[in-house]
Structures are given as structure tokens and as C-alpha cells.
Amino acid sequence: MNRKALIVEDHPIVSKSISDFIQSSIRNIECHPVTNGRDGLAYLNGNKPDIILLDINLPDMNGIEFCQQAKSRFPGLKILVFTSIEQRHVIEQMMQMGVQGFILKSADTEEITEAIQQVINNSTYYSKNVTDILHSNASQSTDKILLTRRETEILRLIADGLTNQDIAEKLFISAWTVDSHRKNLLVKFNARNTAILIKTAAGMGLLDY
Questions:
Q1: pTM confidence score
Q2: Taking Cα atoms as reference points, which of 72, 89, 83 lies closest to residue 9?
Q3: How many CA atoms lie within 13 A of 25 on its CB side?
Q4: Among 5, 63, 71, 209, fewest CB within 10 Å belongs to which?
Q5: d(CA 203, CA 188)
Q6: What are the residues facing 5 on neighbouring strands?
């Protein structure tokens, strides 16, 4: 009987790539990709996946919220976080939610396969990068908030009061992309809303030009 993997990843290209890779690397597994948390939760209503690969940055909710809702309804779910976010507080929150694993998107194919198989087989898997972050002192650079050039650009425009549409037009990108970056920034700064995001970023000197 085929096992099922639910992939909750907002970028269709990444989602398809990981689906194709899993199905070609692991025998008897069927992948079901969705691009937002709402569709992922809806899938759980009539299906019981053997593993969920979960990104943190989703268009309608973050991975922490998804995990909280999914685990409250189905405590036995096996969730492997698969993300590019390297923030200590995010890792710790997901561990508190009871996820079985956490790997970064920079992981090689061998590690991804190993992580999936370990979680499916009722073990846990945390990549070395993740354990290094957890074991590092709070003062070390691994716990600092690292932003890409685009994230810094969008953060400053948000602080200037621009809407998602305003920023999209200014940077020649879609409003959906801006909203995705905004949600990612909220997760990185552990901020409940935009006001807290801006206050925290300002206090760290990230809005200084």
C-alpha cells in the first residue's frame, strides 16, 4: 500500500520539485502538494498522510499556526519542517508544537531522503545546522536575524507606510510576493503584527539608512 506525503509549500516550482524527488527516491509513496495552509488543513479532513513536509512561510498563515491547528485536531501527525528560516525561536516553537523533524532547504538530497524516512519510521530528525543553532549561545551570530537584500528593502518600505500594492508597483513584483515577504518577516522577528515588526526592527537599527 502506498504511503502518503502532504507537502505544504507556497512556491509551486519548489513544491513540484520536492514531490518529484520524493516519488523518485522513496518507494511506494504518493505526494499531494498544496500551496497554502488552508488547503493543507482541508486535505487532512479526509486523509491521513504518513508525513507532512511543512514550510514556515505560507501565504495565508505561517507554519507555526498550521502546525498548531493540525496537531490539535490530529495529535499523531508526523511533521517535518522544511524551510529556509534559520531562527532559534522558530525552531523552538515548532519543537514545542511536537514536530518530528526540522531541516533547511539548503540540505542536500541525501539528507532530505534520510529525514523523510526517519520521520515516517517514527524517529526524529534535526539537521546539523538546526542543532548548531539550538546549541549556540544567544549572543552568537547564528541567532541573529539575517535578512536578504529584498527583505531589507521591503521592511523599510513597510516602515514608510506603503501598502503591499504600493510596494509591488515600486519594486515591479506582484502584491502576492510582497505579502509573502511580509509574512516571512513577521515570523523572523517573532512579531504578532506589523507595528511590532517595525518597532523591533527600528530598535535593532535595521531601518537606518
A1: 0.72
A2: 83
A3: 16
A4: 209
A5: 15
A6: 31, 51
Per residue, the 3-state secondary structure of the chain, as one string, reads CCEEEEEECCCHHHHHHHHHHHHHHCCCEEEEEECCHHHHHHHHCCCCCCEEEECCECCCCEHHHHHHHHHHHCCCCCEEEEECCCCHHHHHHHHHHCCCEEEECCCCHHHHHHHHHHHHCCCCEECHHHHHHHHCCCCCHHHCCCCCHHHHHHHHHHHCCCCHHHHHHHHCCCHHHHHHHHHHHHHHCCCCCHHHHHHHHHHCCCCCC
Residue 196 corresponds to which cell in the numbers above? 511590532
> 155's torsion region: left (phi>0), alpha (psi -120 to 50) or beta?
alpha
At position 69, the amino acid (one-letter code) is Q
Torsion of CA 141, 147, 149, 155, to 10 degrees: -140
